[in-house]
Amino acid sequence: MRYELDARRMLCPMPVIKTQNKVKELAVGDILDVICTDPGALSDIPAWARINGHEIIETGGNEGDIIITVRVSG
User: Fold this and answer.
1) Number of separate domains in the chain
2) How confident is the model over 26-74, as pLDDT tens digits?
């Protein structure tokens, strides 16, 4: 399944914490699109994912938003 997390207007470390909390609710293989505005999330969320064994599928953005797509791993 695919989910979306709105972490806009949150500053570090909140986007990572919100991502971590949401991933705990998801199943292996689920996809989470994290939408944020803090440029630090572009390095923080991938670093968190690498440490915790999750996969970053894509990073991008539109209209000032940053979108980081995470695949939940086991």
Assistant:
1) 1
2) 999 999 999 999 999 999 999 999 999 999 999 998 888 999 999 999 8
Which CATH number covers residue 40?
3.30.110.40
Question: Is 12 one of the annotated active-site residues of the chain?
Answer: yes
Active-site pick, 12, 31, 42, 56: 12
Domain that holds residue 42: 2-71
Would you state the structure tokens that stand for residue 54, as one six-digit string? 């999750």
3-class secondary structure per residue, 6-74: EECCCCCCHHHHHHHHHHHCCCCCCEEEEEECCCCHHHHHHHHHHHHCCEEEEEEEECCEEEEEEECCC
